[in-house]
Design a protein that fits this description.
The protein has 337 residues and is an alpha/beta fold. The chain folds into 3 domains: 5-85, MurE/MurF, N-terminal domain (Udp-n-acetylmuramoylalanyl-d-glutamate--2,6- Diaminopimelate Ligase, Chain: A, domain 1, 3-Layer(aba) Sandwich), CATH 3.40.1390.10; 149-298, UDP N-Acetylglucosamine Acyltransferase, domain 1 (3 Solenoid), CATH 2.160.10.10; 305-336. It contains 3 helices and 37 strands. It is flat, with a radius of gyration of 27 Å. It starts with a strand and ends with a helix.
Amino acid sequence: MLNGTVEGDPLVAVNQLGKIEEAQAGSLSFLANPKYEQYLYTTNASVVIINNDQALAGPVKSTLIRVENAYVAISILLEKYNTAKLHKTGIEQPSFIHPSATLGENVYVGAFAYIGPNVKIGDNSKIYPQCFIADDVIIGNNVTLFAGVKVYFDCRVGDNVIIHSGTIIGGDGFGFAPAGDGTYNKVAQIGNVIIEDDVEIGANTTVDRATMGSTIIRKGVKLDNLVQIAHNVEIGANTVIAAQTGISGSAKVGENCIIGGQAGIVGHISIAKGSQIQAKSGISHTITDEGKKWAGAPAVSFSANMRSLIVINRLPELEKKINELEKIISELKKDVH
């Protein structure tokens, strides 16, 4: 499976995966980071995957599997393990599937799931228990909706999408029109959400439906847990967004952006492709320069923010110097008078 070569007992058995510094007998581990090389000589793991070019500085108890790239090799094994763990088949009861809904081949539907009228679900998709899929939703092939995911009416989910528990796709956008008497009138949100292929969305994230048109999550986007995507937002392909970030209505985020945790982006602006936004940053204006780093609230260039932080850290020292200068000036004034 890994195209590796074995050094040691080729018949050794393993039944679990473990970190090299903690692994016990019967564990399979790996060494990819040189910082952990010391544990190669002390680990109790039965098998350790290492790089072909890893030199040994002492005796090793474990059987070794040498591969081109140990990190890639362990990722393959983890995926195989995860696939086996998540293998589900069949339609569990009680669940509700509307007679007009269409399910592809090898679809799994967990207990207490609801699949509404005219829903279409592609081949090999998994709908875990307590999911709610509303009217006219279309879900592609090889999609996984973990327990408790809610997908509102008319939304579209592409192929190879993973959505984790508690996430809501297509809830109402935050649209309220102020009335003359100080109250607010709700603006009906009649658009939808479109999630393209190869997207992964973390737990308890919310993607609001558009007021009109679509909120769009482009191909390959990765959203962390607890992310808020407002109505009519568009997230460009292969952009990654960390937890607790909020993106306001009608903002457009370019492709291949990296957005750190707890960042905030105001509505009706654009973020250039390749932008990197540091955690806790506040983006209040359109960014047109591609591939630049931004930090701070309100955000400025990363280098300018770093310079500002240096000055801020020196403020107590600067305050002391100013007080000393004020005393000197005061004494000079007395001498003049």
